[in-house]
Amino acid sequence: MILAAVVLELQAQNAGRLPVSHGRLLHAAFLNSICSLDAELSARMHDAANKSFSLGHLQLQQSAQKMTFQLQAGTQAKWRICLMGDSAKAVLQLLQPGLRLQVGSVAFVVKDVYRTQREHSQAGLTTTEYLESQCAELPPVSQLTMDFLSPTTFRYFDNDYPWPKPELVFGSLAERWNKISGEEHFAVDKVKEIAAAYLLPERWHGNSKRVNVSPQHGVTGFVGSFTYKLTLLPPEFRAMFISLGEFAVFAGVGRLTGQGLGQVKVRYD
Fold first, then answer.
1. Contacts 24+ apart (CB under 8 A), 209-212
2. What does the alpha-carbon distance between residue 239 and residue 244 come to, in Å, rounded to a whole number?
3. Is 61 exposed, middle or buried (0-12, 13-18, 19+ CB in 10 A)?
4. Where are the strands (E) in the chain, listed by range?
5. Residue 107 burial (CB < 10 Å; 0-12/13-18/19+)?
6. Tell me, what DSSP letter sits at residue 262?
7. Portion of the chain with pLDDT greater than 90, in percent
8. Is pLDDT at 147 greater than 80 in this prediction?
9. Helix (H) or strand (E) run with residue 172 in it
10. Residue 35: what are its φ and ψ, rounded to 5°?
């Protein structure tokens, strides 16, 4: 299964305002831009029960005032988009300089597209097969740390659960891997069971954060760093959890990753 991360360099074409939590606007802008070039592909991606993409928030060189970014014509921004599965190649071909995006009241044009780590540290292209083979060859690591860059939450019955319990983090990643690949690659219940039994929280720092995903709806998420101790894991399972951690860099973690939530970085000790 293809895993791709691209970083778009954008330039605003007019002045306008964006809310700090603009993930829903980016979600619409992304699918609308794809629709303008391939309506059938956009519809498939929109209608999929499990989204094959995750979207970061815009990376801007300015601070928000009163929970709002005030942009001017010419404002530069970067935007990280991750693509997974069968639709990734088709979407990558459509993301080209000159593409126009309407994000709320602000029109942007793509000035450049970074596709490799040489071009931008947040970009890259791999496959789950290569990822797993590389993780299997890593020397032993004792800790896996996830930096939750944007609010992360899970659905727990009818409520948001803003806490990165190991079984929720890795269970949700295994489930998403299965659904996007179309294969039962992981036994999800087994992943949850092992995570709950053997992945112990080593240290963490962070806080809860409320984010408005729309004017009428908000969710509570967790931001910060969370370190999981791997030394109690049976050796045959370590590569599996490291692979899921690497997958999280592309897929995001938890709910609403297609609207900017659940964006993570992963590191090891």
1. 209/151, 210/151, 211/21, 211/151, 211/261, 212/19, 212/21
2. 9
3. exposed
4. 2-12, 16-19, 53-55, 59-60, 68-71, 76-84, 100-103, 106-114, 124-127, 143-152, 154-156, 159-161, 200-214, 217-229, 264-268
5. middle
6. S
7. 83
8. yes
9. helix 166-181
10. -60, -35
pTM (2 d.p.): 0.95
Taking alpha carbons only, the member of 105, 20, 104 closest to residue 60 is: 20
208-233 as b/e: b if 16+ CB within 10 A: ebebbbeeeeebebbbbbbbbbbeeb
CA atoms within 13 A on the CB side of 131: 21
Spatial contact of 123 and 6, defined as CB atoms under 8 Å apart: yes
pLDDT by residue (tens digit) across 257-267? 999 999 999 99
d(CA 250, CA 6): 10
Residue written as tokens 């980016």?
A: 26
**What's the confidence (pLDDT) of residue 76?**
97
pLDDT of residue 64 exceeding 90 = no
Task: Specify the DSSP class assigned to residue 242.
Answer: H
Q: Exposed e or buried b for every residue in 67-79, given b needs 16+ CB within 10 A?
A: eebebeeebebbb
